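User:
I would dearly like some help making sense of a protein record. Take your time, and here it is.
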Amino acid sequence: ITEIFAAESKEKQEEWLNSFINAGAQYREVFNVEDTAKIKSFYELKDFDMAGNEVSMSKYKGKVVLAVNVSSKCGLTPTNYPELQQLYEKYKDEGLEVLAFPCNQFAGQEPGTHEEIMEFVKQYNVTFPFFEKHDVNGATARPVFTYLKTKLPGSFGDFVKWNFTKFLVDRNGQPYKRFAPKDRPLSFEEDIKTLLAQK
């Protein structure tokens, strides 16, 4: 993965890029298209849990997956965590999995350690799985998000604009729909029900 610009530091680069994105500019990351095209489904990907254990997404085969980049200090946090948990509790037995991917790339709003993150989310009584904190944009982006944002580009291109961007994946491991940070989880409950009905 390469990028089309550089800055004096990663933090400055992200600050600069976010200011342009917020002003309405479009941005496209440059991926190795051939590598991304070789991935046939979400299940071929891997990530690491909070304990550093490798987790294959094939663990969620046959499930409807909602993958979300999360943060603790975002203004969207108090609405997203409760609604994500509500959906998880309501549809888990029918095959919904909510996967949380902490990221500190957006205004430094996930600065804590893994332990601090898990302590913070206790107030929301969340029970869905969390993965280790990692980037979702740029050269160090986690493969799960590189794949999802390439398959489901947003209005700003192959880029995650902000915390709580959500990706819905069907029971066959195919990316289905992307939802913007301000799209509340309960607002697309019907999409989840549609995918759950596809046995």
About this structure: The radius of gyration is 16 Å. The first strand starts at residue 46 and ends at 48.
